[in-house]
Each structure stands twice: as structure tokens, then as C-alpha cells.
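A quick word before the example. In earlier lectures we treated sequence and structure as two separate objects. From today on, think of them as two lines of the same record. Here is Carbohydrate kinase PfkB domain-containing protein written that way.
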Amino acid sequence: MRKIILIGECELNVLFRNDRPWRALPGGILLNSAAALGNRKYDVTFVSEAATDHVGDIIVDFLTLHGVAIHSIDRFTEGHTSSVLTFSSDHGEVRHCVRYKQYPQQSFGVVWPRIDPDDIVIFGEFYSIDERVRARLFDIVKYASERRAIIIYAPAIDNSRVTRITRVMPAILENLEISDIVVTDRKSIATIFNKDDDKAAYADHISFYSFNHVNIDFATSSINMHCRKYSQSVKLSDHPDPDVAMSGIIAGIAAAIIDNGLLRENMEHLTSDDVELLLNNAIKWSDSAAAAPDNIVEPLN
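And the structure line, produced from the sequence above:
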């Protein structure tokens, strides 16, 4: 059975509306993608780190509940698991975020997951460019590429954590170069490439590094996929929370790759039918995540 390995940050999001506590839930786009895939009975492993504190227990228990393997989560004893306080309006518009975290000096001492040819490895967010874990994390990604796994990179740039993009561009370019599919949104390509047009971002930048680019444009409610010879677009449902949509889309793409038997060797020459399958499944999973009570794609009946 082909495996899906996601590498991302463990954090607990504490949400406030009009300065009043509203709800707390495990956060991170890739963490929630892992939970969605685990719910649908795919063989999923999450690679990360969490303290042996109560917050860490909440996140690890959440992943376990959703069927995600946690043997590659480093449970450290010195420090505490990342928590993010998010303050938003009544309508859900984020006004301010405060992040609390404390990691040990020696961090990301994870047990490497087994990676076989045509498995899928998904990485990204700030975690993939964070100097604290970058070297060790990227070693796993390089090994996955050498093992002929399919690599999906989702930058998901958070402007509150990246104040100067030039400082992290070398890491971003390395991430692009090793990836078979790059998944972005309009905000990410504007931050990284100073372009709002995803077609131009692919033609002028991403295509030099990666064969395939999927971009979610919430302003036009569309998902566009660019390959070497053509581009395709599908309509995206309106989503109040872009992160929920993104987590569903990433999970849906990974699921479609496995369900339709696409292999690493196919990534360079995806057909129009392949792209249509990927995009349509991305839409289905995104809609399912938005409709679910906890915004996690629910198990099939």
C-alpha cells in the first residue's frame, strides 16, 4: 500500500472572536491534510515535533483519532508545544495573531519514516524554511526524492513569520527544485514572486524548477493547474476559511494521485485527463472539509 508522509508543524490554534475565547483546535494546513487523509483510511504518517505537555498530547491524540501514524513525531521534554492565539472579528476576519513556542536547542530529532518508490511526501509552510529545523527536515525530503517518491511542496507563506522574503528565498528555491507538484495560493505567489498572476508566476519562475503548479485563487474562486504544455482551471466554491480549503485541496490531490495509479514517472508528463482528475478531486475534498463540523474531511460511509 502506497504511503503519504506529511512534514509540518504541530500547533494548537486558540481562536478568539471579538476578544472572547471561541474554540481551540489543532492547527496547520498540513496537519489537517494529514487528518483528512487518515479519516479516509489512507496510510498516513505525520513527521513533526511536540512537547510532552498537555498541548502536545491534544495534538498527538487528535492525529491518532483520525488514523494518522505518529511514530515520527519527536516528543521533546525541554520546552512547550507551539500555541497560536488568533483574534478575529465576528465575521471571522483575522485581525491579529500571537504565537507562543519554546523549543529545545537540539530539535527535530524525529524517527525517519519508511519511504518507498511512488509514495507521496508533502512538506511546506513556514516549517520548511525555518532555520531551526531546515537542515534535518530537508534531509528527509532529499532522501524521499532519491527513493523516487512524489514530492508535493505547499509554501503557504505566513507574512507574520517571514518579514524579509529575500532571506528565505534560497530555501524556497531549493524546495521548488525538488518538488514534482507545487501548490500555492495568490498570497504566496505575490509574496514570493511579487506577482498576482499565477500563469506568469509559473512561466517566469516555477516552471524552471518544477513541472506542475496548482494555484488556488480565492479572489476569482478558481483552482488553476499549469503543466509544461497546457493549463486547466476549475471553479472553486466560496470558502470562508482559506486554510480549510487549502488543507482539503492538498489532501484531495494526494488522494487522487494514489486512487488513479499515478506514479513518479508520470509527473513530468501529466495528461489533460490526469489534471482534470486531480483538480476535480481537490474540489470535492475542499468542499467536504468546509462542510464538516470540525473542518476535517469526514470518513466515507
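Notice the following. The CA atoms of residues 129 and 160 lie 14 Å apart. We will return to this example when we discuss secondary structure assignment.
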